[in-house]
Amino acid sequence: MKRNAFQLETAHWFYSDEYQLASNSRLQNCTMKQFAEHMFRHIPFLRKYVDQVDQIIEDWRQYKISVPTYGAIMLNEDLTKVVLVQSYWNKTSWGFPKGKVNEEEPPHLCAVREVLEETGYNIGDAIDPDTYSEQVLNEQLSRLYFVPGVPLNTEFCPKTKFEIRSIQWFPIDLLPSSKKDPIPDGLGLTHNGLYMVMPFVRAIRKWIATQRRKTDHRRRSTQPNAPQVQHQVQKQKSISKEAPFGSMDFMPKAWQNFSVKKKDLFQAMDSVLRE
């Protein structure tokens, strides 16, 4: 019956998106429960459960909370901003693009599908199945994959109607990690509205710090070490002051004060030649 409830939910979304809000439609808006009651009365194999609709929907909602959700933490190129999506029905509620996994669906592919549905952006080529942060919120597992390098000028556009109201970039440094952290007045956010965001903020900042350390290390490894080069140059200069033994410029220290009287030397040479 839970699988039937999920199918009814999909049908309810389709009814709301494609029929109820059509320009010439006279169909009324209805809740999931009202839609289910109507369908149970008109679908033959569900008709015998029409008196149990309330309990079936309640059990389904409880089960739905326990289904893991997967999504993405989408960051810009310099890792300073993150994408948040605003709920259509709750204007103060913001979160990361994510959604419930289908049966036997790989988690990272669920994240790709949900992000595409909620933002219109395809992270399929950028997602790393082994790079993520996860939290258990209200007994529900929520895993978000880190996806850096999303251009700031990306034009986001949800694929589904009446699920996402707005998609915006927010500075990571200004997002609170708990209710104790202040929120700038101009940011337009509340702590209650960031209930699904705050548990991930510390993990995001830690991941960013790790990425920046890796970048700095790679940058240093590709550049010469200035102190070592300077030491080597000075060492070469000191060596060049003392010519190696056997060269014409070499002079032992004991000879440095040696001098010759040319007049006496010439007289000695003359006396030797005369003999």
What is the secondary structure topology, with strand pairs?
Blueprint (H helix, E strand, L loop, with lengths): L1 H19 L11 H11 L10 H14 L2 E6 L6 E7 L6 E2 L2 E3 L6 H13 L12 E6 L2 E8 L16 E8 L26 H24 L4 H15 L21 H13 L1
Parallel strand pairs: 1-6
Antiparallel strand pairs: 1-4, 2-3, 2-7, 5-6
Helix pairs in contact: 1-2
Key terms:
275 residues; alpha+beta; 4-stranded mixed sheet; 3-stranded antiparallel sheet; 7 helices
Please tell me about this protein's structure.
The chain is an alpha+beta fold. Helix content is 40%, strand content 15%. The chain has seven helices and seven strands, in the order H-H-H-E-E-E-E-H-E-E-E-H-H-H. The strands form two sheets. It has a four-stranded mixed sheet. It has a three-stranded antiparallel sheet with strand order 3-2-7, with no helix packed on it. Strand 5 and strand 6 form a beta hairpin. About 5% of the residues have low confidence.
